[in-house]
Amino acid sequence: MHKKIKICGVKDPKVISVCNDIGIDFIGFNFTNKSPRKITSNFVYENDLLKFSDKTERVAVFVDPSDKHIDDCTKSIDATYIQLHGNESTKRCSYIRNKFDLPIIKAFGIKNKKDLESALFYEGVVDYFLFDAKQENAGGQKGGLNKVFDWKILQEWKGKEFFLAGGININNIKLAMMSTNAFCIDISSGVETMLGVKDTNMIKEIYREFKTLE
């Protein structure tokens, strides 16, 4: 299977341009309130971010968003995917998918097999799953925690293709790709020099490693 790679939580035009030029498959734009990587639709327009990402899939990332928030943000980046990282129900996911006519990536925090089993309830209403380390603080930041979960849990996964996230970096991307059947490797903190600040050299380096293992 041809694996893909996603860089999430991007907001610097130079970083977006590099991702676009080297062949990153997905760029995640984070429109959630509790993230250090948050951007707004106004920020997108003011910095003309869309022009830097014409070759990549553009993922609008949300946590329990309103319809208006989805509409404003997806239009600003001309989103090709919506990622839902909150407590959205199956009904809500289905509604969003139909209303905005975009594929849905539904994120789940994973700590044990029970968490994985819960994801299966969404099998018929989303297009992809995203498995990340589980946030222990229910009201805290969702994703981008630089925390790895036990990937062995995924060996019994029988559902749809999934994105693998959570603490993936240059040192463990090989293990992530070889020990799971992930459709896409999702990286955020693993290419940052400090919280929320992406480094283009780190992105290029991890992409080279990714391509040798693809």
Question: What does this protein structure show overall?
Answer:
The protein has 214 residues and is α/β, with parallel strands linked by helices. It contains seven helices and ten strands. The protein has helices spanning 13-22, 41-46, 67-77, 90-100, 113-119, 173-179, 200-213; strands at residues 4-8, 26-30, 57-62, 81-84, 104-110, 128-133, 162-164, 184-187, 192-194, 197-198. Strand 1 (4-8), helix 1 and strand 2 form a beta-alpha-beta unit. The radius of gyration is 16 Å and the shape is globular. The protein starts with a strand and ends with a helix.
Low-confidence stretches: none
Largest sheet: 8 strands, parallel, barrel
What value does the Rg take, in angstroms?
16 Å
| Strand order in the largest sheet | 1-2-3-4-5-6-7-8
- Note the beta-strand portion: 15-25%
Shape: globular
CATH class: Alpha Beta
CATH architecture label name: Alpha-Beta Barrel
Helix content: 25-40%
Number of strands: 10
- What is the helix/strand order? EHEHEHEHEHEEHEEEH
Structural class: alpha/beta
CATH topology: TIM Barrel
Number of helical regions: 7
Mean pLDDT: 92
Number of domains in the coordinates?
1
CATH H-level homologous superfamily name: Aldolase class I
Q: What distance separates the N and C termini?
A: 9 Å
Write the layout of secondary structure elements.
Layout: E1 4-8, H1 13-22, E2 26-30, H2 41-46, E3 57-62, H3 67-77, E4 81-84, H4 90-100, E5 104-110, H5 113-119, E6 128-133, E7 162-164, H6 173-179, E8 184-187, E9 192-194, E10 197-198, H7 200-213
Parallel strand pairs: 1-2, 1-8, 2-3, 3-4, 4-5, 5-6, 6-7, 7-8
Antiparallel strand pairs: 9-10
